[in-house]
Amino acid sequence: MYTADGKSDKNHLLAEHAPLVKRLAHQMKAKLPPSVEVDDLIQAGMIGLLDAVNRYEETHGAQFETYAVQRIRGSMLDELRNSDWMPRSMRQNMRKIEEAMNILQQRLGRSPNETEIAKQMKLSLTDYQDLLFEGGGHQLVYYEDFHADENGEHFLDRYCTDQSDDPLQSLMNTGFREAVIDAIGALPEREKILMGLYYEQEMNLKEIGAVMSVSESRVSQLHSQAVARLRAYLRERAWTGLA
What we know:
elongated; 2 domains; 11 helices; disordered N terminus; Butyryl-CoA Dehydrogenase, subunit A, domain 3
């Protein structure tokens, strides 16, 4: 692994860790909508791996693979951000779902079921579930969530009191973490189990489907719905509990 002058053989490191890039790309693809091409993630990951190889000799105390994973994932996330993989129209649709959930939660005093949400949105159950599937990859927090929308201050601004360069880290240093835990606890039991399998056990959608005896597409729908519930819960808590 080393050349005559004692430096690591960069070509060897690249060849040895190329399978790692593919593995990470497929793991990330499983959590993203169909519009994202795994080849694009692999290409971005290889750029991250090359960057890791070039920088590694400047770092201390970290195994190369541990360091490389960070650079590879970071490069893939940069590619997703730059390509805007979730269209604005889809985020608007997910926002409408969250708003319907909020209205029903207040009216019913419990988490609404799918049929009730679809009726509130004046959609058939099939059309509502199609929206959930198309929203695969919907996230709990987006960076743009920290900027005011057409209605003024965004709800995440109320959690973020530290005006640092990393608002996400600032969120985790406030009551946001506890609010997320409370929100997960309020999920319907099946969605709570799904989120545990997905984020704690790190299973992919196909594996979760096998455990829950449903299709992979159904898991995607339920995941999108669970994330929408979490965002709706956090928005309501921000405006009422933190106002």
